[in-house]
Amino acid sequence: MSGNHLDRVDACVLILLALVAAGxxxxxxxxxxxxxxxxxxxxxxxxxxxxxxxxxxxVSIGHxxxxxxxxxxxxMIAPASEPAxxxxxxxxxxxxxxxxxxxIGAVSIRSRxxxxxxxxxxxxxxxxxLFHDMGLVGSADGAYIxxxxxxxxxxxxxxLDEAERYYVVVAIVVAAVIGATWWLKRSAFGSVLVxxxxxxxxxxxxxxxxxxxxxxxxxxxxxxxxAMGYLTAAQHGFVAPEMLAWHASAIPLVMVLIGGKDTVSGxxxxxxxxxxAEEVLQRMTEHWLIxxxxxxxxxxxxxxxxxxxxxxxxxxxxxxxxxx
Amino acid sequence: xxxPVLRARGLSKRFGGLIAVDNVDFELYPHEIHSVIGPNxxxxxxxxxxxxxxxxxxxxxxxxxxxxxxxLTIQERTRLGIGRTYQRSAVIPGFAAIDMVRLAALHSVPxxxxxxxxxxxxxxxxxxxxxxxxxxxxxxxxxMTDILSHGERRRLEIAAVLALxxxxxxxxxxxxxxxxxxxxxxxxxIDDLRQSCAILLIEHDVDVVFAIANRITVxxxxxxxxxxxxxxxxxxxxxxxxxxxxxxxxxxxPT
Lengths: 324, 255
Fold this sequence. Notes:
The structure holds 2 protein chains of 2 kinds.
Chain A: H1 3-27, H2 31-53, H3 63-77, H4 86-108, H5 114-133, E1 143-144, E2 151-153, E3 156-158, H6 163-186, H7 188-198, H8 200-205, H9 210-236, E4 238-239, H10 246-259, H11 265-284, H12 288-302, H13 307-318
Antiparallel strand pairs in A: 1-4, 2-3
Chain B: E1 6-15, E2 18-28, E3 33-37, H1 44-52, E4 59-64, E5 67-68, H2 74-79, E6 82-84, H3 97-105, H4 122-134, H5 150-163, E7 168-172, H6 180-193, E8 198-202, H7 206-212, E9 215-220, E10 223-228, H8 230-235, H9 237-244
Parallel strand pairs in B: 3-8, 3-9, 6-7, 7-8
Antiparallel strand pairs in B: 1-2, 1-4, 4-5, 9-10
């Protein structure tokens, strides 16, 4: 299968997702809107992680820590008795996540493969214990954010308390994250990142530092994860140390692998499939986790490169194309 | 004699108890092809790796046009105009041939423009097209590097290094594994390249070396046993000993 065909399918899936996301406020209300908001945020987190796992070749099990850091920064700076300014508090929270990602990346990226995975896991757990055991921001109990932030534009404050309105803001931010990832992956920077993954020695001989390229990608990804952490905290009005724990990082990684790490849309598709499957199975049985596990096993067995590359492969004969 | 563009002084490399390169002095002058030959295991590729910055020397120094570059990384030396190829094909899998060469040419555009796709950068496009044309691969520009033949990969590597716009070319056995026609073409290309570059050529094909090199340095067991113009090397008894004593390992010296 040629890269061009996969890229075209990737773009088509993204357009389809955008259309579905745009239709959600018109088709659903109440709980479904909240569920769609959660799925959108998780999709954004998975896409951010997919950028470093796929093109970057860096399997991080610490990305939830960046989301968690941004959430905690927001909890610390949010006013107690009035809505926070969404733009300024989000900017501060995202910068906080980016700084932490840059610091963790600067150390972790010196190692590769399994050791990189262990480093990110260790840093993530370090963050978890920092907030859980050190008496910071509510310690193990977490902390509340009393009021959802509001969007202040041109002197007008727009409340985001309505679920539909908040969903629209989230959808726009997630679309921006996906768009930025798409752009970066196709940029010359993205090409250097992919080449650094596949032939580091040659990339050095071309005058680039794979370490610096990876660190930039990791920091950008951490910042995008931070944006998702901010949106999660703003949605639920609550932050807890569990947001940084390793299982919170493992779930987006599963989403990336289900959808396909070599595409931009794949991680978003993985998030949708996993969270909708959870939602449906939870209503059917208390043993819903078994069902989720079977779905993951089925994807690994039958679509090991992920659902979007699988769809691209299936579409080749359907479109009358030849295997390249 | 002009200033050498690249100079090594007392360059040595030890791997534990093994001395791979032992106190080698070397100069490379503008517009010359200076070949380093020697039997297998003589330390040629290790020596080149130290000049390129892939390997830190155990002792000695490397000077680039009078500047000490011994402590610089390969990427820093690349930015100083030193380009290298590898003994084993080192293409980037999953890339079209033209994109790999474009990647090499990317250093010529400012960092902020690197957020654009490779194919949209006109300077990068021009340099890559020219380099690919120079090695005769223009017809294979969209072919994925994974399915290029061995000879095409060797050419692609040279094209990629040319796209860097180097003043110094360090070529590690560029003719290895090529057919006779390809050897003639690549040898002619290297011969032409001296117009724009100083070239260090490590090569086992001594016929080509004696045909195109201005100077030859012979390594054996990590040490320089002779250095001079091709005629002097041809007459050297120690070189004859190094080669004829190991006939079948590297081939006879040309007469």
